[in-house]
Each structure stands twice: as structure tokens, then as C-alpha cells.
Write a structure and sequence with these properties.
3 helices; 81 residues
Length: 81
């Protein structure tokens, strides 16, 4: 059936991405330093946000999204290199 063929195509098209995104990536040479640089810069921004932004939803979201930014930046390094 055409539906089965499409499902097979979609499943196999995304298989490499799924396998990569849900696998452990051991750090390669130079990557830990990159991770740390990103964390250090994010930490500086976190302290600035803590100091300057009044407590509230916006501050909470800023901190959460900063954490997510670090996560995704580091994931981009580990998954792509």
C-alpha cells in the first residue's frame, strides 16, 4: 500500500537523526573546553540577570531559557563534531 511505503520512507529518512540525537556522544578532543566556555559565558549572563531583573515570571523564563541555550549549544557541539 502507498501508506505503508510512505511510513517506511519517513521512518527511514529520520532514522539517522533519531539515532544521533538519542545516543551518547563521548567528548572528543577540544570539546570539554568549548562546553566550559559556553557555560562560563552563560554564568556571567545569569549573574547579570539575577542582579538586574526583578523577580517574576520574566526572570524565571530568562533563566530557564539561558539554561536551555547552554544545553542546546553543547548538544550542537557533541552531535555535530
Amino acid at each position: 500500500m502507498i501508506i505503508d511505503e510512505v511510513a517506511f520512507f519517513v521512518k527511514n529518512r529520520f532514522r539517522p537523526t533519531i539515532e544521533n540525537n538519542f545516543s551518547y556522544h563521548s567528548p572528543k578532543e577540544g570539546q570539554p573546553e568549548k562546553y566550559q566556555s559556553i557555560r562560563d559565558m552563560a554564568k556571567e549572563l545569569a549573574y547579570l540577570i539575577e542582579e538586574m531583573v526583578p523577580n517574576g515570571r520574566e526572570k524565571s523564563l530568562a533563566m530557564t531559557n539561558l539554561e536551555q541555550s547552554v544545553f542546546w549549544a553543547n548538544a550542537g557541539i557533541s552531535r555535530s563534531e
